[in-house]
Structures are given as C-alpha cells and as structure tokens.
C-alpha cells in the first residue's frame, strides 16, 4: 500500500541514505532507496546543511517488523487499537498498517479518528435510482419500492409487481378466510346463545305456567270449576307481539294492582292487557283472585274477560278494550276544555248501570262477590257512554250463607267505608258506601279528596253530608246539573247519596234497592220527556227496554202500559221514603 505523505521537517541523522521522521507521533527510519519521485514534494535537510531542496517522493512504509497477529499480542505498542480500525499486513514485507473500517474514514492512528461516512451524500448515490438510500453506522441501506427487492450483486431492485400481486392476492385470501371464519364463528355462537336463551326461556315459562295453572285451578275449584273451560289461555309471545313487547307508548293507565296496556291481537281484536307492576306473592294472589272472579261474571255492565296468560311470573289478564276512558278522567280531567260533557240524563244512566252491575255481583252471581274497590276510576265508559265496571283485583267472593268476612282493609281513601276501615269486617254495604261517593261525584263533579278555596284537602263525603245538613247542597252542585235537572231530581239524587253514606252499614240500602231507585228516577224522567213531546205534537220516546220488563218481572205489573206506569210510580214513592225511615 502506497501512502502519499508530505514531510516538511526531516532531520539528517548519520548518512544520506536514511532520514528520521515522526509521522503521527511514531518514530521510524526511512531508507533513502525506497523513495520514489512522484507529484508531491518533501523538504530534506542534510546534517552539514550543504544541500537544500524540494524533492517529489512517494513513501511506502509500514509499522514495525511484525505481522498484525504478532502485533496484537503486545497491545501496549499496537497501533490499531482505536475504534473502527482494521489491521492490514504490509504487502512489501514485514510490518503492518492501520486502515479505517469499511464505511468509515479519517486517521486510524488517532483516537476516534475514524468517523462514519455518509455514503448517501455521495454523487452518484450508491443505490439505484428506483431505490431510496438510507445511511446507517458503518454503511448504508437501499430500500426498493413496495414489492421490490434490492440485489447487492446487481445493485438494482427486482421487479416488485409480481411480488406485489402475489402478496396482494395472498393478503386478500387470508383476509377473506379470516373474515369468513370470524363471521362463521360469530354466527354459530349467536345461534347457540340464542338457542340456549330460548331453551332457558321456555323452561322458565313452563315453570310459571305449571305454577300459575295450579293456583288458578285451586282457586276456581273452590268457586266455579267450569269457569276455567270458558277462559282462553294466551301465549306470552302473542301478548308481547300485541303490545310491541309492552312498549310504554301502549300504556292505557296504572291501576291499583297493575299496568294496563292496549294491544291488538292477531285476529285484529283490540284488547286491554293487565300486567302486574311488581312480582311478589301478594300480586300473584291478587291476579289469580281477579281471574277467578272474572271467570264467574257475565254482565253487560262488567268489563269482559277474554282470557289470561299463565307463562309469565304473574298471570296477564286480557280484557275487552274500552275506548272512552274512566269516569274519573271524564269528570275530573285536568284540562277543562277536553272534558266530555255529561248531561244530567247521562249521569243518571251511568249511576243506574253501575248500580246494576254491583247489584248483580252482590245478589245474582253464582257466588256473591264484593268488589271492595268501587270508585270512579274503576268505572269505564264506552263510545256511547255505557258503563263497564272493572278492576276486580281486590274483590272477594263469599259463600251464600256468609254476610260478612274479616279481611285486611283494602280500598282507596275517599271511597273507603269507615265501618270497614275500623272493624275489618267486609260486607256488601261497604260497596254501597263507595257507590254513594260516586253519586256525589256525579252531582258535584268534585274529586273524592279535593282542594277547597283555601287550598286545604277536603273529604268529599264529609263535605257533602255537612252541606246537606245545612241545606246548602245546591251551592256545590255542578252548574250543568243545575241547568238540566230539576230541584226535585237533584234532591232525590242527593237523598240517595246520603242513604248510601250512612256511617253504620246496616242503615244503608242494599245495592239492589239503590238500583231500583235509580231506575225509577230514569223512568220518571223519560215519562216527563214523553209528556212534553206529546204536548208539542212530537214523537214519543219509549221507556228503556229493560225498564218496564224489570218492574213487570219483579213486581208482577199488569199487561197494560197504564197499569205499569201506575205501579212504577207507586213503587217509586215507596223507594223515595226508604231513606227517611229509621233502620
């Protein structure tokens, strides 16, 4: 290896054939005959200073007279011990030389004299044009475009299109396979979970069905065993579909024992479905009791039970849908402008039909039934304002030989019989008291518990009785009643309410007596209207179809209409006097 070195200070030692110089801190002797003229110059100084001049030379030299392997054994004199250097044996005999490692440049004889070379800054770039050069310590890297491979042998990038297509195709296949696999696993898992959940749901529903059916049968056997055969059993799926899975938008109202939903069955029948608000044994007993009671009732003024569902925790009851809401909503709706106008005739008829339904429960049903929660909110009205008595969850059926039964007090404040409240003894007269409150509501259009002009809560029953005793009843009667009814009719209605609200149950009339009195009032009102129409030469309105039949059956009226009217008026006078007689 030839090194082009320029020496500026060369000391003459002992002859003209050798010089001593100190390159990079190392002393060595250079023989004169090894100098070869070249394009560089070296300054020489002889000892006797007789010759001065500048001579171009090329210096070929080496360190020591040992090889690299021998030199490494004596690290104290080894010249290539700095980093990033390599030892090379001299090609011209003994000795060795130090070179910077590949990718480094500088003076290998100095500490940290070899520094990294940034090959990427060289021009031309060591990488092919299509590749990107990236410098690394001690070298460089060539990065080919996506899909290509760098070849050091040819210093070029291989065509990556085929590779790219192959990788793309492989990626697509792998992606599709993974996607299909994941989708298949998810589908299978979903089906298995759904089948598992359906299995659990079916088992739970079967358990509920068995339990509820046993409770229903036990209740019905003690009352009317044949009633179960006339009650349809609905599936839970059918009722969920009918109510959009019991959507809150389908709620018709919240009763004392459950929430009522509007539903449309598969045969397009519109129904009301009653569902318990909570799940406990008391609610289950209430629903079973209502189902047993309703299975025995068949009256035109009692809401009709279509069937039940026994697959839920608490049985669901399916009733006919009554579109016009409750009497309470019509009488006491918050928006006065939206209230339905109930004429005086309508109010008498509503009271008459409701009393007819309660009288049927007390005396005409196969087993006497006490409703125990008679109130205006449980009287439903159809499109033609006909009455449908509802909500028999608290009702009790008793044997014929019983007249009263001791129970836990249950009902609604404002309608609750005070005697029943204090003694716990339930009788048919408890329903009579509650019905008396409804009559007062029809007269005054006030709630059973209302706010007076001073903002204080008042009990309508006590308020009405006080007004009746003070002979100021007309001051609290609804304006429409005052306009349409006569004073005698209003007094008669108020007297009937007073009779029903007697503190002692034995002093109150029976529900049958109340029904007769109300039907008599209706009959007189119809006859009065007919008389007025006859005077003006207009068509005569006939009595209600059931009116004359009822009295002819009950009291043996004569065949002629005149005799019937006479008998009706006589009975009416007798009934009017009942409330004034001591009992």
UniProtKB/TrEMBL annotation:
Membrane-protein topology: Single-pass type I membrane protein
Source domain of life: Eukaryota
Limits of the EGF-like domain: 116-158
Gene Ontology biological process terms, A to Z: cell surface receptor signaling pathway
Residues bound to ATP: 275
GO MF annotations in UniProt: ATP binding; calcium ion binding; protein serine/threonine kinase activity
Keyword vocabulary terms for this entry: ATP-binding, Disulfide bond, EGF-like domain, Kinase, Membrane, Nucleotide-binding, Phosphoprotein, Repeat, Serine/threonine-protein kinase, Signal, Transferase, Transmembrane, Transmembrane helix
CDD domains: EGF_CA (cd00054), STKc_IRAK (cd14066)
Stretches that traverse the bilayer: 166-193
Protein name, per record: Protein kinase domain-containing protein
Lineage, uppermost ranks: Eukaryota, Viridiplantae, Streptophyta, Embryophyta, Tracheophyta
